[in-house]
């Protein structure tokens, strides 16, 4: 699957939404919102050309590209994103989305959202860039420009007081005012349409947009508390611009709900074209394999719950996976133990940390310094080693379902599993769906995987994935490689 030579273009009636996800788990979460809204959606690990889509995935109306921009150094962002954005532009879609984490974590050094916006303006030429970080269903809200996030669906914290995100090991969020935060990443000026404007309705929103555009502000943030706010914002912007210039949004996965609603309202997705997932179908898929590279509080609670409820957990010392003298024998032992447990019918969790206070985190940081690696390079190395083990385990067992926990490492692991594309098979709670795998390697093709962000999911999430019943891959597949 390669980008189209010369960036051929697609027919106008083809793709409605093209989106790039800055981490793997967020990309699948966006596909979930679109699929649940009836939009036939497939995610690709490399941007497919329009002709490839016509031949192999003709029913698809939303195309996602899974990326790793959230962990990329700023100086390589343009090089990494330019070819992807150019292929996306060739789809001639009315809507494009640069999906960022709904906690907006980013920095001047890593995962620079400002640079992505600058490039999006250069390539897509939108009238302005709407930024909507909120994800109401997930407990992420923006009020008067300040961002708030719940912990595990419970207490809501201002972002700079959030127990996990304020202490994120790579991109700690120490500023809750999103405009102030973004101003450190770009010289482009931004405005804010606040919750009072949103509540006043479309006419007031459009008036504020006109004012900011006239003042030369290319970026406009939007407050958002509820699903209704989100739908109002997306519908207003779509009706305003969609037939004049392409829309280039930046925001959370839940924009998928609002953008799909706008397309449905405009009659762009006939009933006969809509995607519908069956409810209770399928057979038992057997034991589950979980690989966790997350140190988030929520994932830690999920691992503890699973351990108390029959899952076998295998602790990994991440610093040893970085040690060339230790990693080979360590990986062999872990793979052997995992294969034995799976053969005996046990679900297995491999983890590099259980929560942000885990004693393995400090030695990992020390090893990163010792090896003169950046955080990005260390994440890539760790993800590759976890991916190698996942590949060995899947290739030598009957496991049919995997979970990758931790958005920063998920993109690295998928490369080892030779994943070419993904399609949502079943939502599991919010923002961490099961997906069918499209792979040129027969052992991996049709596998089911969930890519779960560190802060996502209920305490019994892994058990829910283990028990989920889904239709067969061949029955629901939207295409073939």
Structure description:
The protein is of the alpha/beta class. It contains 17 helices and 18 strands. The strands form two sheets. The chain has a 15-stranded mixed beta sheet, sandwiched between helices. A three-stranded antiparallel beta sheet has the order 6-7-8, with no helix packed on it. Helix 1 runs parallel beside helix 9, helix 12 packs across helix 14 and helix 14 (375-395) packs across helix 15 (407-416). The chain is globular, with a radius of gyration of 21 Å. The N and C termini lie close together (8 Å).
Number of helices: 17
β-sheet strand percentage: 15-25%
Mean pLDDT: 92
Q: Name the CATH homologous superfamily of the largest domain.
A: Putative sugar-binding, N-terminal domain
Radius of gyration: 21 Å
- Tell me how many strands there are: 18
Q: Which strands sit side by side, in order, in the main sheet?
A: 9-10-5-11-4-1-3-2-16-17-18-15-12-14-13
Examine the secondary-structure arrangement and name the CATH architecture of the largest domain: 3-Layer(aba) Sandwich
CATH third-level topology of the largest domain: Rossmann fold
Largest sheet: 15 strands, mixed
Ends apart, CA distance between termini? 8 Å
- Output the structural class: alpha/beta
Structural domain count = 2
**Helix content estimate:** 25-40%
CATH class of the largest domain: Alpha Beta
Low-pLDDT parts are 1-6
Oligomeric organization of the protein chains: single chain
